[in-house]
Specification:
single chain, alpha/beta, Chemotaxis Receptor Methyltransferase Cher, domain 1, Rossmann fold, seven-stranded mixed beta sheet, 10 strands, 42% helix, globular, binds S-adenosylmethionine
Length: 275
């Protein structure tokens, strides 16, 4: 790929999704953009770059941006965050939200929905304890393809084998040929919509818990700061932010501080942690 084309794609991706690509990742551009070139009947990446420059077609730019996202996810990914949710975060929310009996949880950059549905399963396992509570789980992602997949709730054998206890597979899914679909009544426990983390996040409203895992790693430091500081405004004083295992707020923003003894969990700075 020509250097000027690589630079042009990098600028485009940084603006549209926050993704920062270094030169050693040029192979990723080539492997992921070739299918886009084929879809648009273009001979290769030279021609793709030329069409991007001349036509500025929104649908094409979208295809390029989505093709470059890494959508890796799994049910109960890393397990510990879900154990912490059940043992630490949820009991505190149930105690402090007793009057309004309403909890909002955001799976930001939810990919194909496994994180949101894993939370729905944890909550469902609470049974009668949550009777009368309204619990909203909202998953958002930049990728329209991933959002459609999350809404459909259909997963391959490989996807359900990763992290999902067999008892949950039997309880929450129906087999459809060689795939598995979440049962209808359960699928409605989570809502999904397209949303770019670089845009104004305030229309999404306030949340009690935000899961923002394994997406900030793709952004540069100013973008991480911007996203985290916007999220800080969307949490109440006792709200909780989850980051991925390779992510931190340290050196990025002062708005959050790590929760004592709870790796990967953060609360707003200056607020004594109740959870
Ligand atoms: C590696 S997945 C993480 C999925 C899930 N949070 C997890 O930890 O399993 C990263 C997701 O971030 C999404 N993403 C990347 N940039 C984004 C942006 N600017 N706004 C919203 N989603 C974005 C991608 O489409 C992808 O689905």
């Amino acid at each position: 790929m020509k250097v000027e084309d690589f630079d042009m794609f990098c600028t485009l991706l940084k603006q549209r999704s926050g993704l920062v690509l270094t030169k050693d990742k040029a192979y990723l551009l080539e492997s992921r953009l070739m299918p886009v070139a084929r879809k648009w009947n273009l001979k290769g990446l030279d021609e793709l770059a030329q069409v991007v420059r001349t036509r500025k077609d929104e649908e094409l730019l979208r295809d390029i941006t989505e093709a470059m996202t890494t959508n890796e996810s799994s049910f109960f990914r890393d397990q510990k965050p879900f154990d912490q949710f059940k043992a630490v975060v949820l009991p505190a929310l149930l105690a402090t939200r007793q009057n309004k009996k309403h909890i909002r949880i955001w799976s930001a950059a939810c990919s194909s929905g496994q994180e949101a549905y894993s939370l729905a399963m944890v909550l469902n396992e609470e049974g009668a304890r949550l009777a009368g509570w309204r619990i909203e789980i909202i998953g958002t992602d930049l990728s329209s393809e991933m959002v459609a997949k999350a809404k459909a709730g259909v997963y391959t054998q490989f996807e359900v084998q990763r992290g999902l206890p067999i008892t949950y597979l039997v309880k929450y899914f129906n087999q459809m040929g060689d795939k598995w679909q979440l049962k209808d009544e359960f699928r409605s426990r989570a809502q999904f919509r397209e949303y770019n983390l670089l845009s104004d996040l305030s229309p999404l409203g306030q949340f009690d818990v935000i899961f923002c895992r394994n997406v900030l790693i793709y952004f540069d430091q100013p973008t991480k700061t911007k996203v985290l500081e916007a999220m800080a405004k969307m949490l109440p004083p006792d709200g909780v932010l989850y980051l991925g295992g390779a992510e931190t707020v340290l050196g990025i923003t002062e708005k959050f501080k790590p929760m004592d003894g709870q790796r990967g969990l953060y609360t707003l700075s200056g607020v004594p942690a109740k959870v």
